[in-house]
Request: fold
Amino acid sequence: MSLKTVLVVDDDEALRLVLSEALRAEGIKTLEAQNGVDGLTIALEKHPDFILLDILMPEMGGEEMLQKLRADEWGKNASVFVLTQLDSMDKISDMMTSKIDGYFVKSSLSVESMVKDVKKKLGM
Reply:
């Protein structure tokens, strides 16, 4: 059985590294991108099993990346959890209509909880 792969797209390098390391510790392969441009390229080339996607990033934000991802034949069904500083329920519900699997608010993010949710989604 091949390793499950998660793409972590976040411009916050420290958070990106913490999340990636926590996932690797659970036997999950990780890919990383620091913005939506790189994230979209990696997602469409590598077809990860799961994507953790920040919303507010330079060059291309998460909302635009998600729209472009959903326009792709493979990407329209990719599993995506949004990472956001936003706590507005309107904004999060807007994202839910873009067919995301869930979201984490960064200010209350528990890495352990996030890993547990990702593993559950991956069937691990």
Remarks:
- The mean pLDDT is 87.
- Residues 33 and 110 are 21 Å apart (CA to CA).
- The two ends are 12 Å apart (CA to CA).
- Strands lie at 5-9, 29-33, 50-54, 80-84, 102-105.
